[in-house]
Amino acid sequence: MPSKPQKRKSITISDEDETEKVAKKANTTMTPSSQLKKSSEFARSMQKYYDSPRVIVEVEGSKFTLPKDLLCELSPFFDRAFNGAFKEATEGKVTLEETNRISFEHVIRWMHMGSIAVPDPVVYDEKAFNEVVKEYIGFFVLADRLGLPGPFTVDMQSLTSTVSRGRYTVSKENMRQGTNLPKNHSVRQLLADSCIGEYIDSVTEDTNFRLGEELEELDGFGYDILMAFQRAAKGKMDVDDNGSYIEDPLHKGNAAYNILFY
Q1: 152, 158, 161, 164: CA torsion to nearest 10
Q2: Is the pLDDT of residue 48 over 90?
């Protein structure tokens, strides 16, 4: 019998009582994003956040009641909003427009634990693959918007592992989503690396590039592709009677993913 899909555990906080439950749990199981500490020291470090005033962040109609000091210490965006000369500071409430609720839940988790957790889909197909990639990119875009300091090492490793599995290609939608990040961002580099083989094949075989429209329309996407090619070309290169090969940046050492060009 197939297993039932696991439901996502929501961390939406709707009232003060629920906030206190999360606060108590944080004092025993959560890790601050800066560094791991001994449990007693960690409890003291977290206490300052949960003794601070509460503020409300509204996302897609959901209200999150959170410690003001935690938000302001880790996000310049929230620091300006809640400590500046704006109505948000007076009201103690910020509404994040054009923001995905799940992305914000990941931000809250990162603030407490230093990493996020995107659940694996029950049925893993191309649609599910791209939903997972979309969720990671959504977090990185919002983290950049809020000015979270990082590091995002664990999350970047998880996204890289997902993208480099090689079974499916990253969707056009996700490629477009990634261009909301700054140029040279690690996520943009990863997305470009994931399609460099397709691009070179389209050039050497004179075929249409799957992301041709994105190449023409998206600001900086052509630059991303060029930098991805340079990274690949500077890596391992082999030559035989059939031509020259550069190593696929996401599948190093795997001949099945080597890129052929003449």
Answers
A1: -60
A2: no
DSSP string, 123-178: S-SHHHHHHHHHHHHHHHHHHHHHT-----HHHHHHHHHHHTT-SSPPPHHHHHHH
User: Mapping DSSP to helix (H, G, I), strand (E, B) and coil, where does residue 17 land?
Assistant: helix
The interaxial angle of helices 126-146 and 153-163, nearest 10 deg, is: 150
Q: Give me the pLDDT at residue 237, please.
A: 66
Q: Exposed, middle or buried by CB within 10 Å (0-12, 13-18, 19+), for 94?
A: buried
- In CATH terms, 8-114 corresponds, of 1.20.1250, 3.30.710, 2.60.40, 3.30.1150, to 3.30.710
Q: Where are the beta strands (DSSP E) in the chain?
A: 54-59, 62-67, 93-95, 237-240, 243-246, 259-261
Q: What is the DSSP letter of 246?
A: E
CA–CA distances in Å: residue 124 to residues 95, 101, 127, 155, 157: 34, 23, 8, 20, 19
Contacts of 55 (CB under 8 A, 6+ apart): 65, 66, 67, 68, 71, 82, 92, 93, 94
Domain-wise residue ranges, the chain? 8-114
Inform me whether the pLDDT recorded for 88 exceeds 80.
yes
The dihedrals phi and psi of 47, each to the nearest 5 degrees, come to -60, -35
Q: Do the Cβ atoms of 82 and 88 come closer than 8 Å?
A: yes
Q: Is 11 helix (H, G, I), strand (E, B) or coil?
A: coil
Q: ω into residue 151 within 30 of 0, thus cis?
A: yes
Give the integer Cα–Cα distance in Å for 37 and 157.
Answer: 23
Token pair belonging to 33: 């994003």
**Does pTM surpass 0.85?**
no
